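Shift notes (night). Ran Hydantoinase/oxoprolinase family protein while the centrifuge was going.
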Amino acid sequence: MIGVDVGGTFTDVVSITDGRVEVTKVPSSRRDPAGSVVEGARRLGVDRSTVFNHASTMGLNAVLERRLPKVGLLTTDGFRDVLDRGSVHRPLSAQTDPSWRRSFGDAARPLVPRYLRRGIVERTTADGGTLIELDEEQARHEIAVLGRCGVDGVAICLLNAYVDDRHELRLRELVREVLGDGVEVSISSATSPLAKEYERASTTVIDVVMKLLFTDYAGRLHSELGGLGFGGQLNFADCAANLLPWEEALDRPFRILFAGPAAGTVSSGHLGAAIGRRDILCADVGGTSTDVSIIVDGAPFVQNTFEIEHDLIINALSTEVSSVGAGGGSLVTVSSSGGILVGPGSAGAEPGPACYGRGGTQPTVTDAALLIGILDPAGFAGGEFELDVEASRRAFEALESPVPFAERVRTAYRLAVAHMAEEILNVAVRHGVDIRDFSLMSYGAAGGMLLPSALELLPLREVVVPPHPGLFSAIGLLSADQVYYEAESAYVVFGPESAAGVDEVYRGMEQRLRERLGPVAEGLPVRRSFDGRLVGQSWETPFVQIPEGAVTAESIGAVVGAFHDAYEARNGNRFDAFPVEGVTYRVEIVVPSQKVDYTPAPAAEPFPAVPEGTSTLRHLLDEPVEVEWFTRSALTVGATVTGPAVIREELSTTFVAVGQTAVVGRSGELVITRSAS
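Came back to this:
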């Protein structure tokens, strides 16, 4: 099995063969993203693999940076400004700011400029009736305008098309007739047949963009992997880290916009189950940001939508992830008063931190860790290149600040940890959990270097650094299942009189799903859920599980009760007297996949680990301190390391701070706690 997580800085590749784990990192290339993946696959012998699971942030980064192909939008006449309007929701910080504008609006960086959004004369009513027939002659004229503007793709989102898709289907045919088959087309009724026109429109636009970005990429990847001798199944991961065969993923590629953070959460849950941890805060510390998610009683929080930017909403199942701009590559800068700041800016992969020797001159958190002595300049990234200590020193010395040099370095490190700790606490508070009951799963290449120090700021139970933390998200791709689903929307108040209609919706979706999957679905159960709300609310409680059996006038009460239980679990309140309205209905089939095996080693009593050498820790404490360092691969179950100490491995470093103890667990994990003293 091979798992690949394509990030903005590095492409992480993991291979597992007969229980043996091999890993490699390849610098990501914006000009040739498939080349980095193929090179990593070649290094690890993809010809021996039967499964190749892929996740990428390529699409997400393209949207964030607006490196987008030219696409047009066809929508109901009078509604072409729906993309500019958004959901009319402002962030709290902008409530009283008259100059605030959406990042994707016409006054900023629109996904589709206004001249490429064309209104089509037609109108379908909310109950599926036809108020105005499609004006085909006018539609041809507007499509021809898009053709003269040179669009590469067209998104079609008509009002109420989730109820009746006839006009969208005909418009797609007209686009083919006028512009030819070389233009990609996405229609909302096939892409995201759900209520709420803005979210449906933004999702459809992202879908056609992703088709243009990924179709050639995926085809080339499949071809070149085959050229290396790979004849197995190529899967792409979606935003909840569910796996899809690559052809299936390209049918609705908005679902694969990003998957790395979700894969890390899945990986945390899988390892957590193996080591007996069911309540986990997950923190993926990369170069630019730290992505935080939560697992409660073994299950991650999955949402029915997510935001790329504020109010830029996508209708995709996604693991709930919160990010903060603090990572190994976060820039260290100076405030107007001369104080030290960290983030949210990042040095990225190019030029990278000053110590990389690639032209970077600004100091970063990685430079601070190098000057402190946590990082080994000769052993970074598996020894692929040596870090330049003097370049880091010059970068910190160049800061125009009255703060002394040692204090600059110490503050940079501690501020990065504080930013991460604050976001971890925010996630715990938002979900109403007691952080003292939770383990912090620390991964990403910089996770072990920074997050154990968060134990000094947060009353966490412990910090767990998993095996191969720098590639833990890629390992998560080898811990996921294939998940297929169907969804559709209809506003229905649940009661005995509506039970038969609801049951018919579920039976229809299940039949279509089983027909789509064919023999692979035989014998597999269907999971049913719905997104519902109390009548009068404008937002939904997602993924309310439907009890087994038909939905009947007698059983609809159990469905309503399941909603109130889910609502109370998420929000802490319960309103049994309010009627419940269903909005979106969902069926899914899980096809189990081969997974990483965390077979525990025999238990052993804790014993002091034998160090391999010593190094000097500078700037972090009042005086330089001599610390022991260890090689992680040499530590066996029960080995105990008392801080301050450094544990090195090929692609990551773990820093055990003063007053902390690290013990090697039975699955190779490092469990770091505060020392009893």
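The radius of gyration is 26 Å. The chain is about 30% helix and 25% strand.
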